[in-house]
Amino acid sequence: MDERPDQRRTRRVTRRHILGSGSLAVAAALGLGYRSTKRPETEFLDLPLPGLPAEAAGTTIAVLSDTHVGRFATPDDVERGVELANQANPHLVLLLGDYCYGLGERTQSAFDDAIRPFARLRATYGVVAIPGNHDYWDGIDRVRVAFNRVGIPLLTNQRYMVSIPGGELAIVGLDDLWEGERQVDRAFEGIPAGMPRITLSHNPDRFVYERHRDLSLMLAGHTHGGQIILPGVGPLYVPCRYGWRYPMGHFRAGRNQLYVSRGLNCTIIPLRIHCPPEVTVITLAAPGDVSPEAA
Ligand SMILES: [Fe+2]
Questions:
Q1: Residue 272 contacts by C-beta under 8 Å, 6 or more apart in sequence?
Q2: Torsion sign across C-alpha atoms 186, 192, 193, 195
Q3: pTM
Q4: String of b and e for 156-193 (b: at least 16 CB within 10 Å)?
Q5: Ligand 1 mean position to 170 CA, how many Å?
Q6: Alpha carbon of 169 to ligand 1 centroid (Å)
Q7: What are phi and psi of 227, to 5 degrees?
């Protein structure tokens, strides 16, 4: 059937309208999902830890990751995370790497500025850190000096023993998967079987590569939760091999558990969509002490 010119124009206009309103809907969905790095949110969760003495149930751990001071974030952006962590009155604070972004050409004082906010963390059993890939890319020696200056141990395939009610808790800090040394055996050496442990790995891929070990509870960052999440699709980009499987949140595989933090700040672009910055507060339960939903 022949169309009159005005009918064709009407159809073109209609298609354009539909496309336009579709784009607007996507833009609106993304716009509504905008999350400022100035407003981190606290994720609270209860997790059972095998071997934890009943007397130590309720031990609270605050986790900060991917603070990335430099190109996009300032030390003030880290201070907000530190405040939220302190508000939880944690027994222990664990820092999961990537403290800088684009500081490679800068002097030691820029690294000191990036790490100094952690000096305000308050925790009964102390604060422990591991490095991430960006810390190596920007200057691991300067990161190490900065941590020394605030008195926080930076673990690289080492462990940190914590005396808890009824026993000890081993914090196993792995070096960065991409840039660090690979002696993972050294980190676990000498930890008695059955001793409660928390394994720290910046990159969650280690949850797969080291699955033959008793990792117990592994805490990771690195993914930023994808940073940009498209509604109905998922994270736009996750920079590691198994990141699509483990972009954020809590997972189990056999006897091991993994929790992946969305982290605090950004890399590549200073934007978070449907992916708020996170401070994590974990309350440990003795096995059998936690409801199935919480586990
Ligand atoms: Fe990161």
A1: 34, 35, 36, 37, 224, 227, 228, 266
A2: negative
A3: 0.88
A4: bbbbbebebeeebbbbbbbbbbebbeeebeebbeebee
A5: 25
A6: 27
A7: 70, -45
Structure tokens at 286: 């003795």
Distance 74 CA to ligand 1 centre (A): 15
Number of H helices and E strands in the chain, helices first, is 6, 15
Report how far residue 233's alpha carbon sits from residue 139's, in angstroms, rounded to the nearest whole number: 36
What span, in angstroms and rounded, lies between the C-alpha atoms of 127 and 31?
37
Residue 287's pLDDT band (cuts 50, 70, 90): confident
Distance 201 CA to ligand 1 centre (A): 12
Token match 């008195």: residue? 151
Alpha carbon of 134 to ligand 1 centroid (Å):
7
pLDDT of residue 196: 97
All residues at 6 or more sequence positions from 71 whose CB lies less than 8 Å from its CB, including other chains: 101, 102, 267, 270
CA of 22 to the centre of ligand 1 (A): 33
23 Cα: distance to centroid of ligand 1 (angstroms): 30
In whole angstroms, what is the distance from residue 172 CA to residue 285 CA?
19
Contact 96, 200 (CB under 8 A): yes
Ligand 1 center–CA 55 separation, angstroms: 35
CA atoms of 169 and 284, how far apart (whole Å): 11
- Cα 126 to middle of ligand 1, angstroms: 23
- pLDDT the model gives residue 248: 97
Q: How far is the CA of 216 from the centre of ligand 1 (A)?
A: 23
Burial, 243: exposed, middle or buried (Cβ in 10 Å; 0-12, 13-18, 19+)?
buried
Q: What is the pLDDT of residue 34?
A: 87
First to last CA, the chain: 64
If you search the block for the tokens 């190109």, which residue do you land on?
71
